[in-house]
Amino acid sequence: MISFQILKIKDFKSIKSAEVEYTAGVWQIIGINNDATFKSNGSGKTTLLEAIQQCLFNKTTSPTPIEDTSRKTIGVANHTRGYKLELTFTKDGDSYTVINDRQTMRITVIKNGKDLALKSMPIALKYIMTTIGMDFQTFVTLTFINHNTIVELLDNFSSSNLMKIILNFSQITSFEKRAKDEQKIINNSLVALSGQIQTINDSLSILNKFEEMDLLPIQKAKVSALQDIEKLDETLLKETVEAEEKHQVLHDEVEAAKLVMGKLLKKITTSHCESCGTLLEMTEEEVAICEAEYSAMGDAIDIEINKRDDLYETAYNLRANYRYKSRDLAQNLSEIEQQLIVATTKNQLFNDSKAQADELRTNLQRLTFEHDEATFKLQVIQTTVLVIKSGDIQKDLLESFVAALNLHLSRFITFVSLDYIHIVAEAAKSSVSFSITDTRFNHNISIHTLSGGEKTRLRLVILLAMLYTIKDLADVSTNLLVFDESLDTLDSSATQDLANLFDYLVNNDSKFIALISHGAQLSDIDFSGKIVATKTDGITTVTKEVT
Description:
Radius of gyration: 55 Å
Structural class: alpha/beta
Number of helices: 12
CATH superfamily of the largest domain: P-loop containing nucleotide triphosphate hydrolases
Shape: rod-shaped
Order of helices and strands: EEEHEEEEHHEHHHHHHHEEEHEHEEE
CATH class of the largest domain: Alpha Beta
Number of strands: 15
């Protein structure tokens, strides 16, 4: 049940500022219009009630445009500043506050202290309607009871608004057409979903071609190549350097020997002293000895030169071999590093494709679920259409409706002074009728044979039975019940009956019952208090007096 708590009004129509607390009890709403001849009319009583409609649904039952008249004075035009309405209510343990601010053209919904931040007014209105489980017409019908609501309950019961809330035959009759429209929408959705699913499957077939490469063998090959280069530097390069150094030493020794031979040759040919340059006289024997020495030295030098040349060739070959092997190892390392880059890139592509594929699979799962859900919904609609055509829904609704209605009729009629009246609801083909029996004479009677007070009391019983039937079957009800001049035909003898009924509603459902009446027949009711709307110079002030 929707339990309204507090309504705050600012600059709404003629009401400048007001606050209404919906405390359980029976309250009398009184209007005093100091600006008009008819003191009770036009005071703002209806405005006080319409504020709750405007706050929740952004419209009222009154065709009068919503504008600010709280600043209205004689001879001065209205100042349209914009109203602000704030309504607090609870449902299913949750607390809600709805703020309808015309100046900002925004409706704010706060749930359990948290602003739901609804983006637009239509979204907010839809959320409110979904939360309270009622559209505007249903809310007004269930909450604001006027004379027409009471009269139609017996005079035109089968087509009354209260009955339509449960049976809703017009919607059931047109459901088949709407179901076919829904079928078209679902079929189009299924085609779109099937296309998206096929696209994802095609993408997955491409992404599945990516393979993850094993980097370990390539990384091991790179380590081995680096080790080979290091080994080459440690061995072959070392041998090359040593050979070059030996070649250099031998080269230096040969060059030194050549100098000695040169000096000896000079001595032989010129016979000059090496130190002073004096011409020496050498014997033939001395010359022969020198020549033999020169010849032997020349042979030794030739041997050393050959050794030197061999060492040079060895060093040259080692150097060339080092360069070739170093180049080959460097090229091998470069190829391995290229392989590693390619493999790493392929693995990155694989990981990217895997993430993309996982996302696609998630979308595929979601789309497949939506597809299955739409297919199931289509089957449900098709089945429902067949059930509607068979008439089973109308029959079941009528049977449930009549059973619950009779239960509440028998309960509420005990509160009024109609012990001699027995009323039973009966299901017809597509409507409900009432059988009324006068138990004093044991025969059926017509509603029109009853007095005005009896009619009103019987209609009130039916009204309450209807409200509780709707609460049972549709789980739709509020703690607010307003009787807008709908009980004026009751005579003073019915006061106690009203008191009994209202006490039951207050004690069992914490109802806030508001009675608007111009008649004196309600003056004997023991009200919890009264709410007075007083209009002076175009401005309505609201006061609440607790008895």
